[in-house]
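Record type: ASSEMBLY
Status: queued
Input:
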Amino acid sequence: MSNIVGDAASDQYFTGNLATFATSTTGRGEGGRILDSNGNKSGEKGSDWCLGEHRKKVLLRFTPAKRRARAMARYVSERAAELPEGSKERKKFDKLSLELGLCRNCLLFKHHYLEGRVTLAKMISCKRARLCPLCGIAHANAHVVTYHRKSVQLVEEYRARGEELRAWFVTLTVKHGVSLPDTYKLFSRSVQRLVDRRREADKARRGSLKHQYALSSVMASVMAGVFSFEIKRGSGSGLWHPHTHGLLLSHGEIKKGELSREWEAITGNSFIVDSQEVDVHDVKSLCEILKYSLKFSEMTLEDNFDAVMALQGKRFLRSFGEFYGLIPDESTDIDDTILLDSPYIELLYCYRGGSYHLMPGGLEVSAEE
Ligand SMILES: [Zn+2]
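Status: finished
Output:
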């Protein structure tokens, strides 16, 4: 299963987010150009024979993300040049720049012409999801697919036992701060304290007197949850504004007012929250919750890089209860597992001069090979 071709859930996410990204980064909403090996724009006569609609869309969405990754590679290289020659830090930055620049330079597709299907078969990716939008999207997508499946499975398992699990889309914010590490630290600790109340409520139910307070927590009836942190600057203040969106599967109602009061008691000064019940089968909520932690399209290269450096080693995701230990399979980034028995033509696209180009000479491979 893939995020390029495959199930409707992942495809929908990929479409929505990359389309948004394309619009916001080009400023003209036109995404990127695709040229075939003869230099024709896709869609022009003479190029459509091998440009399946799906692949065309993939390349249109890949292109603006690839441009941003290249721009980040150049920026990191400039930062490296400011450091003493031969220093460990400079070597690290140079390596990072190289990896970012090479990410998804070439994409190998297989066109299974009998079925009229196209799969993305091979590519090299940098796996730097916090700096590279190409990898950021793939990373987020893998999480959406995994958490969506598990959510639906849990709701159905509980229903089969005669218990109801309701899904809540929750948002927690803290006051903006000048220092990102300090603001993040306070925020992260506060989220952890709220999450801990779920287990403390369990202890109270087992008789612990010192944890009785947790029984009135909004977390007391939560069976599974995931919080994904998002880092950005406030649009008005220019100050750092970490916040989190989360999905909570609960036996009870997560009331916004109660959540706000509890959150203010934990943080000491922040009460702006949100809580809305959602349909667990609708993947849109998880797309919104698990989208990128760093909004590339809204951040300058400098802010993006500095935020990543300041928060190295910090986790941007908290999962707990029945979600604890879920490991998304990010190898689903490519799709080479379906349609293996049919003949196909290999199509290699490489990024040159701001666009992906089809390399000449597609190789036909029969089913027997
Ligand atoms: Zn990458």
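Annotation: Confidence is low (pLDDT under 50) at residues 1-50.
Annotation: Residues 69, 103, 125-126, 128, 132, 134-135 surround zinc ion (CB under 6 Å).
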